[in-house]
Design goal:
This protein is an alpha+beta fold and 220 residues long. Helix content is 40%, strand content 27%.
Length: 220
């Protein structure tokens, strides 16, 4: 299983969001109905609901919205895609290849989408969909997740080698003040050079930070 995060210049909701640039939309779910209907349930956060609904009227990818729940500055909408929206939607492709859409957030700057894909072939298929439609796509994060859900590697995106170096760095005192172990000594423990140990340690640390304490709104 490949866990991926993309930034996509996606046409769905683009026009609506251009009328209300301070709005943030969080995708909740999509439903594909046998007659070709494609509906989305989304949370809309922000103060400019009137401008957003006006924008939907001008958005060629959407039919008039149905407001489901309303709070002070958050609303849940039921949106149905037009024929143009259905043509632009990647969701049927996600379903077809057995992938899982985990998170999708849309702003006036584009969509940030996190998806779990079965393999590299499906990753290429996913990427080809956007390139074939002429949509700009930026891969922000990619790592393989094949371990049980309770493991540190699975939860934090670490490879086996990154995990073992990080654990050894703690066990051997590399992170102590003062240090009681060097990168060269860590490398010797795993039969690699100090440069390789440094690279493995840095990559593992970066991945661990990104998937734990790093702010989601600046990463995904």
């Amino acid at each position: 299983m490949l866990l991926t995060t993309f930034r996509i210049d996606y046409p769905i909701l683009r026009e609506a969001l251009s009328h209300a640039p301070n709005i943030e939309i969080t995708w909740e779910r999509s439903d594909l109905i046998g007659n070709g209907t494609h509906r989305m349930l989304v949370w809309v956060d922000g103060p400019a609901f009137g401008a957003f609904e006006t924008g939907i009227e001008a958005d060629p990818t959407l039919k008039p919205p149905v407001r489901v729940i309303e709070f002070d500055d958050q609303r849940l909408y039921h949106l149905e895609l037009t024929a143009e929206g259905r043509q632009a939607s990647v969701y049927p492709t996600v379903v077809e290849m057995g992938a899982l859409l985990q998170k999708a957030i849309a702003t006036a700057d584009g969509w940030d989408i996190r998806a779990a894909l079965p393999d590299e072939e499906s990753l290429e298929q996913y990427h080809d969909f956007f390139r074939g439609h002429g949509f700009d796509i930026e891969l922000k994060q990619l790592y393989e997740d094949w371990r049980p859900k309770h493991s540190a590697q699975s939860r934090f995106g670490l490879t086996d080698r990154q995990h073992e170096v990080l654990v050894a760095a703690v066990d051997e005192g590399y992170l102590d003040i003062p240090r009681s172990c060097s990168l060269a000594e860590l490398g010797t423990q795993f039969g690699i050079s100090s440069n390789a140990a440094s690279e493995r340690f840095r990559r593992g640390t970066k991945t661990l930070i990104e998937n734990t304490v790093y702010p989601n709104d600046t990463r995904t």
